[in-house]
Amino acid sequence: MVQKIDVLFTNAIVLTIDEKHNIYEPGALAVKGDSIVAVGLEADLKKTYQAEEIFDCGGKVLMPGLVNAHTHVPMTLLRGLADDLRLDVWLLGYMMPVEREFVSPDFVRLGTSLAAIELIRSGVTCFADMYYFEEHVAQATADAGLRAVCSQTVMKFPAPDANSYEESLAATREFIQNWKGHPLIEPSVAPHAPYTATPEILRATAALAAEFDVPLHTHLAETATEVENSRQEHGMPVIPYVKKHNLFDAKVLAAHCVHVDEGEMYTLLHHKAGVAHNPSSNLKLASGIAPVSKMIELGLKVGIGTDGPASNNDLDMFEEVRL
Question: pTM value?
């Protein structure tokens, strides 16, 4: 019996990325509504499905979309600003002052729209973002038809969209309430990093994420300096410090984790945290190379991200995979 569908993609090399890594050539893919209903050999699918529209892929590869596990998409507008500096100088000396001066809802919408074009052209269909005025990132992303985890930044310094962390927290709560349940956007909270947060911010953001059952997106143990400062100020490395302040009460997406030992990896594993590995950014800022092989060996879930376009300087996931 022939089934009616909306679109049949034909004449493709279909990479399934299933357990057997099946490849169909010439392959086809059937779509109804917002769901893929079948993949297989073109001849088989043509017998089974009647499509409103047939799209000829021209012998190109058709594969699942790439997921960029960590980025700051509006920073497309800051690409190339302040290169060849270590993270603390680059971030605190250049990026944050420039952002406080120039970042606005219009800046964020434009930067996100530019990023969406770049992401789509390089095969990315979903990304995890962290920035300011995140509701505008969410809207521009949804308008482009991409999926994203959109994380509103909370930190102890005045930010482009808030004078205090209390203001940021209130705005984040409203953002989560407005966007929770959206088909493309998962709202989220982002305590920027332990060194830009306070114990109160770590606890409050984790409680907020747990209350709404949304992710918490943050930077952890990115540089050796960060870890050393944590030892001096708090008497412990970064991962135990954030654990002490209940960060892992939430579903944590931890960007970087370059300078973590095996015990800290087990902590992340135990709390089901995900790690976003950003090789280009870690090399560009000379932060180091994350112990990814060990993380995977222990069973940690590791994704790959580009980081922001100002610390990469692009959103090309194939380059990250290659690295």
Answer: 0.94
